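Bug #77: duplicate submission created two jobs. Keeping one. Sequence:
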Amino acid sequence: MPLETLRAKEELRDLIDAYAYLGDEKNPGSDGFIHTRY
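Kept job's structure:
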């Protein structure tokens, strides 16, 4: 797998984690994501 793809996946994971964290703080479960670590 190209390095760029790996890097992009990590950034995406960080974004999802950050979004899930913010969603949990405001209103647990309201963002519709299943909050799991990859």
